[in-house]
Amino acid sequence: MSKIICSAAIRGAYQIVDKADKKLSEAIAQKGRDCKVEFPNTAYYLPIIYSMTAIAVKTLEDCVHVLGLARSMLPPLPAEKHWVPYLGHTLDAGMATLFAEEIYEACKYLIGPHPVDGIWLGAADDIIMRERGIEFVDGTAPGFAAIVGCAPDADTAVKIARELQQKNLYVFIQSDNLGVSFAEQLAEKGVQMGWDTRLVPFGKETSAAVYSLGFANRAALSFGNVPPGDFKRNLLYNKNRIFAFVLALGTRVTDEQYANAAGAINYGFPTITNIDIPEILPTGVCTYEHVVSRVPVDKIVDKCVEVRGLKISIHKIDIPVAYGPAFEGERIRKEDMQIEIGGPGTPAFEYVCAKEIDEVEDGKIQVIGPDLDQIPPGPGVSLGIMVEVYGRKMQPDFEPIFERQMHRFLGEAQGLFHMGQRDIIRHRISKDAFKAGFRIKHIGNIIHAKFHADFGAILDKVQVTFYTKKEDVERLLKEVRTAYAERDARLKGMTDESVNMFYSCTLCQSFAPTHICVVSPERSGLCGSVSWLDGKAGYEINPTGPNQPIERGKVVDDRLGQWEGTNSFIYNGSNRSLEKVSLYSIMTDPMTSCGCFECISAMLPMTNGIMVVDRDFTEMTPCGMKFSTLAGTVGGGLQTPGFMGHSKFYLSSRKFISADGGLARVVWMPKALKEELGEMLVKTAESLGLEDFVNKVADETVAQTEEEVLAYLQKVNHPVLTLAPMF
Amino acid sequence: MDEKQKTVDQIMLDRMKEIKVETMYDRYHAQLPQCGYGSLALCCRHCNYGPCNIDPFGPGPKKGVCGADANTFAARHYLRMSGAGTACHSDHARAAAHLLVSTARGEAPGYRIKDVDKLMMVAECFGVKTKDRKINEIAEEVGEMALMEFGKPYGTLLFLKRAPEARQKIWEKLGIAPRAIDREVTESMHRTGMGGDQDYRNLTKQAMRVSLADGWGGCMIATELQDIMFGTPKPVQGRSNLGVLKKDHVNIVVHGHEPQLAESIVLAASDPEVEKAAKAVGAKGLVVAGLCCTANELLVRHGIPMAGHMTMQEGAISTGAVEVMVVDIQCVMQALAETAKHFHTKLVTTLSKAKIHGAEHVEFEDEHALEAAKKIIMMAIENYKNRDNKKVFIPSASEPNLIAGFSHETIKYMLGGRFRASYRPLNDNIMNGRIRGVVGIAGCTSPRVEAGEESYVSMVKELIANDFLVVATGCAAGQCASGGLMLPELKDACGKGLKEVCEAVGIPPVLHSGACVDNSRILIACSEMAKEGGLGNDISDLPVAGACLEWMSEKAIAIGQFFVASGIYVVFGMNSPVAGAPDMQRLLTKEMEEMVGARWDFEKDLKKIGRMLMDHIEKKRDALGINVKKERKLYDMAERRALERECKPVP
């Protein structure tokens, strides 16, 4: 009976609020009421509290206030006899629990024990949240399993983790069962954990559950354009967008764990467990059941997915190792590798080319030369991967697009590590994979299966040939390099004026409902992964999908980059919340952002220019905000003149904020970004007539505040000084 | 019948027989056989050409002096009943609106604005500005706007827009969207006078309109404004039946309908001086208990015990332990004055519009409510010494035996807490069949039904055993409470599906929603269900139904008709109020369905009504396509994207 669960959850909530109270008093005693409190590098304060109440907790004093609020939300325990309805009460108690635990965990950052310790990672910062958020957006990660407790034994833990990984789910780990945690079981078996493998150990205490749920809240704030304090939409966003659930493993459920499960139900995240506890089967707050128990561990992952209402389509690929996005981040160390393909001095390539119908035999996979069992272990293996495709809708322009996807396709096989592209590839195959029977030809199986699965609308036939003899590879490389060069030349000549059609990308509308990227040849999508050609191919692959052609139509403003077609597309596609968008301006109707941007440009009024910061730069910037805080201002489908998210590629475009003065406006960017863009940026600057421009752009080594930037500009005579005022 | 199985009502009636106190049951039997023409609505006394009768069977007259036929007789009668019922609730509502205005102006000591959220909700509905304004200013304007609803010269009622859009369109199309409440009542009187409206269909349309002015006007204004002043009901433990009176306490029973009297008595009674005074006369304390709808109002807001429903008013006095029975208006029987004479009990009337010959009168005005309340309490304390302990007979002590307080807001909250409050879980579990549907029971208790029969209790037991959730108001709720159906433990008497839901939420299978004006809460709940989605887009699509088994008051007719005109199938027990006019009967029980998507049924055999309600709801379920077993839907990425409605910002 669920009264048992509700009573336990409410009891647990009282305990947790008391515990947080005690911790907070200790923190205040040691640090004082005005002491700053935060999770590392996030613009969302304590995110659950912030998203539910709009209260920005900044000091311990603020915590006192919020903890009072949490306490006021604690309901009476259900009476033995003649009780009043307890479900609403229990959900409130669950939320009070989460508020209290965020305060508790935040105090741990101040006075210890520090949440980051050994295998435990503590709070995810905004960089991780945004990076991973993209995977929720494109569907590679439908949600997460919040694992509480531990499996019956370490082997079962590994099995469950692998099953979840294969279903593309993130695995967030917290809490224990009688002192043993699921994460410790994985560690015992040497399983790689961390964000890259989607196995994320947050903390051993139950209160670490707030890192899982706070992550979910932040996704809604950042991608869903949900304002802080709009608790209902935030929670419904989670119910409908983030297919997460609590997987409780072990032998018993503590009152504190029940309280957290009650908190999770507010998000529409049900609890599934192998433990013998009462069930709550009626639906409503969650999509289906709320608590399902006594599920055998060997069936539990399937049950979780069913209870959460999730459909996961896995294309079975005929290879002897596991396959799924969760393995993309897996690294293979030198001592674990069977062979390394490519690398310095070793010729290797991968190449996709379009052929005629009778030149391709679908499914034909050939290995010309020795396969893995005949190649001595170690580095320096030459490999040429030639993928020949035929399709009625295939265009040569799509070749590089498909080719680039091979990184993802191959990386997702367990034991296969893919780096680089074209003729600079460097792959590793692990010893374990080799032992499991993995051979070169299996790479062909993956390519064949994935090309059909993802590009079936365009391709009809795929054949793969592997060349493993060095001399073959060297010979072919010459031809292949010619092809690469032709492609580059073709792309380079492509300008916005040379096409009639732009493409939309509304992939992120599942998360940011009013945002639309308008992708043109000279302005790629802000995430950096959708070029104009990608948009074109995307439309061919799925004519009703997120990439739609936008006929530019009549010019509204040439300089700003506004056309009737783009404006009307934005108006209709943004739920009529936006009327106009400029492709070439940061000041007038700038393009909105979903939250996936590689870089943010922000005005520095004093300098009459803009600064650019990319997501890898976590330090303070001259505008007084870190990337994470800036991201909160820019994301969520809002037009904020003077601020804009964009791709790295756009910086090297001649159309980069050309309406506002173009590249010459850039006065500051992180050193690492300058280095990464390198030659590309130099060439663009030169073509715009800017001399020695990159060196005139300040970076953090010479200027950290706006004043310092200005001083530097004056010193180097930056061209921005001669430009007209920005506004 | 075995003594143990007797209900409290029966035990009390036996006692009254024993001590020779006349009851309504005695008087009812003395009336038999009741007038056949009257029963069939074939008697017209609207002018002095009459009384005219129409012979329903034989060769007697088929027309009145003016030529009006049976259908006109019945329809006029029907419209007057609807209008009178509407007048009752609405005059009650007017009093609440006046009180809100005087409270806001600080002219009604003892009253205050208790539920600001509700005030804001009503303000928004009325288009009253709230930004940067003081609470009292807003409340005053809301009160004044409410008063305007009774007599505004133009436009229709403001609360109509709380109904689903599809429903509003039907009202507009039929021309039955009510205008000012008083106008609809006046027009009803006008049209039913001699030589006025003589087309039974046209008269019935007006009956729908005036009733809608009741449900979406009078009742709703009363409910919402009372919530603003006295608090919106939340689940509370309560006690019911005559056992709530205490042998060694001063007992005051508050009977009638308007909570402002009862609220101020409760407030005045909480003064420690009162307890002292009670102790000074040898009592252990003071009990305030409610009766009839006053009891419902007090119970759902404060958990104040409920002495009984309407038919127990004489019984309460006959316990010999009531010092004062204080009454306001509606359903208060003149007989009480006579009953009180058998005991030391003082009957006190409080409203100049409702006096009873033989009762004492203490005038109750908003401005001096607390003083009047104190005066009445002191009368009771003083009267304690006159109690004759030999005459005291209280059937049994009463344990907490119900959970009450299921307002629309409570239902939303209990299904999702403060962060996820919604009707989604209710709709979901109706769609998946755990709950087959919702039945509202409302209205009166009647001496036509033997006291021990407990018609509501038996029907409700049948409904919950078949997984139908029940919402109850008025005296029907009173009977269910005494019958022990409003306890969460009653989940074990439910079918498997309803039981699971009751366990998950912690509710009883029968939800007490308040007094008869609080039927407006059911209208809002149904509108919310329709708007929540998945069960059609109008109230008439929902798998819900309503019933009143022992109807008595004209208010019941108005309530029944506003439910039907709002799209809810309604079954009344006993007799049809238009039984002698076949066309009129057909209009109510068949043709109305085509007009408003719902109709009436009248059924003499009360035991059949449960089945009728269930069959109707199953038909609605079939029409919605939710009776087909559905595969569990699993969402892939594209389908998750399509789950947009709930996530998108409001444009």
Cα(first) to Cα(last) distance of chain B is 66 Å
Secondary-structure-derived class of chain A: alpha/beta
- Low-pLDDT parts of chain B are 645-651
From the alpha carbons, calculate the radius of gyration of chain B and give it in angstroms: 24 Å
Instruction: Using a beta-carbon cutoff below 8 angstroms, give the protein chain pair with the largest interface and the number of residues from each chain.
Output: A-B, 59 and 50 residues
Helix count of chain A? Answer: 22
Low-pLDDT ranges of chain A: none
Q: How many domain modules of chain A?
A: 3
Please identify, by name, the CATH architecture of the largest domain in chain B.
3-Layer(aba) Sandwich
Give the strand line-up of the largest sheet of chain A: 3-2-1-4-5-6
- Oligomer state of the chains in this structure: heterodimer
Q: Hey, roughly how much beta strand do the residues of chain B contain?
A: 5-15%
Task: Give structural notes.
- The complex is a heterodimer of chains A (727) and B (651).
- Chain A is an alpha/beta fold.
- Chain A has three domains: 2-308, Rossmann fold, CATH 3.40.50; 325-485, 2-Layer Sandwich (Bifunctional carbon monoxide dehydrogenase/acetyl-coa synthase(codh/acs), Chain M, domain 3); 497-722, Bifunctional carbon monoxide dehydrogenase/acetyl-coa synthase(codh/acs), Chain M, domain 5, CATH 3.40.1470.
- In chain A, helix 6 links the parallel strand 1 and strand 2.
- Chain A starts with a helix and ends in an 11-residue tail after the last helix.
- Chain B contains 26 helices and 16 strands.
- Chain B has a six-stranded parallel sheet, sandwiched between helices.
- The model of chain B is unreliable at 645-651 (pLDDT under 50).
- The interface between A and B is large, with 59 and 50 residues.
